[in-house]
Write a structure and sequence with these properties.
This protein is mostly helical. The chain contains 11 helices and 7 strands. Strands 5-6-7 form a 3-stranded mixed sheet, sandwiched between helices. A two-stranded parallel ribbon has the order 1-4.
Length: 376
């Protein structure tokens, strides 16, 4: 029997033993079934014999038939003719490189995650969100890395957003006003969503005296901000330099929690209305996972997600910045100060990420050197 087959079984046995011995770090926080589910998922993800990126992309990008009372329309927006949009994006990325970071990335690390997944693989999440908001969800099938490196996926997301605002000829949809659009996503898609907002903000910063324009679909258009952005388990630190990345790695808990806190805290301190929720003992992207998606925490997460999206469109003035910690068991809520989510100065964050970038660069150069020597 291969090691890939053994991993879940070994994980289940270890989980049961650790709970029986009362040494499990999540004992008392999760019910036994949920803890076993978390450990099994972690064992599968971290199994020794990982599939290649190509095989993983082929599996997660495969289209699937629509089931149930769901209407899904598949459309294609052409991107190759949008030279002005490409020019504006590259100019903005370059200016961010010179003066700041992407999401919370530091200079010289301009990459956006997105090496797997598709509208089909995220259809269940989109359907749940559409049902709860009473709206429509537009899922973007962007080109994936590493075959299509940064900023390809961000460019495709920008074109998709502009195509909602300014539909191409013979489109199946009418123009959607920016005030009716909320960019929502999870995991790597959350990183892309935050990056799109940063991109649009940077475009506005470069033309502070007037509304920025570009040529799109043969017309000069404005580039307004959407009504809001909402992300679950979004990647913000692609260097994995934050303490929670290593601290939570062995326990199946959300490893991106620190970068989420940094983003939320920094945005709130700059006057942005931020609603931040942290779920104790929950793993990455837990509301979308098997078994865990049925937990009360997942139900709350989707409900709050939908409520925020609806409020951004219908009652934006009613939104107030807030932060909440949701305990796992029993599920109780504790109010937090959104301005004091993490005791980690932003300059220290940038320093940690800068050091991580240098380590990654040295590692890459060493591997590249070894490959060059091996080919000589």
């Amino acid at each position: 029997m291969s090691s890939t087959k053994k991993a879940p079984t070994v994980s289940t046995i270890n989980t049961v033993l650790s709970r029986t011995s009362n040494i499990s770090p999540t004992a008392g926080k999760l019910d036994p079934n949920s803890e076993i589910a978390v450990k099994t998922i972690c064992a599968v993800i971290n199994r020794p014999n990982q599939p290649s990126i190509s095989a993983h992309q082929a599996r997660t990008s495969r289209d699937r038939p629509t089931r149930g009372p769901v209407w899904a329309s598949r459309v294609t927006f052409e991107t190759f003719e949008e030279a002005d949009a490409r020019r504006v994006l590259l100019k903005s990325v370059k200016s961010l490189h010179n003066g700041g970071g992407y999401a919370i990335a530091v200079p010289a690390l301009h990459k956006v995650t997105g090496d797997s997944g598709s509208p089909a693989s995220s259809r269940s999440t989109a359907a749940r969100l559409a049902t709860r908001t009473g709206g429509r969800c537009f899922s973007v099938g962007y080109r994936l890395s590493p075959k299509y490196p940064f900023p390809t996926s961000l460019f495709h997301l920008l074109v998709a957003y502009l195509s909602l605002l300014y539909p191409p000829p013979e489109s199946l949809h009418e123009a959607v006003p920016a005030s009716s659009i909320v960019i929502a996503a999870d995991s790597a898609g959350g990183n892309l969503s935050l990056s799109l907002i940063q991109l649009i903000l940077q475009i506005h910063r470069q033309t502070p005296s007037s509304q920025p324009h570009l040529q799109f679909q043969g017309k000069e258009i404005d580039i307004p901000l959407p009504a809001g952005v909402s992300a679950i388990s979004a990647y913000g630190d692609l260097t994995h330099a934050m303490p929670s990345w290593k601290g939570n790695q062995n326990y199946g808990q959300e490893m991106l929690v620190d970068e989420g806190k940094v983003i939320a805290q920094r945005a709130a301190r700059q006057g942005v209305t931020v609603v931040f929720d942290e779920y104790g003992a929950m793993p990455h992207n837990f509301p979308t996972l098997p078994v865990l998606g049925r937990l009360p925490q997942s139900e709350r997460c989707f409900r709050k997600w939908a409520e925020f999206c609806v409020a951004c469109v219908r009652e934006p003035a009613s939104l107030r910045s807030s932060a909440t910690f949701v305990e796992a068991r029993p599920m109780r809520e504790k109010a937090l100060d959104v301005d004091k989510l993490i005791d980690l100065p932003f300059e220290e964050v940038k320093r940690m990420m800068g050091e991580a970038v240098e380590k990654q660069r040295e590692k890459f150069e060493k591997v590249l050197s070894l490959k060059v020597k091996a080919s000589l």
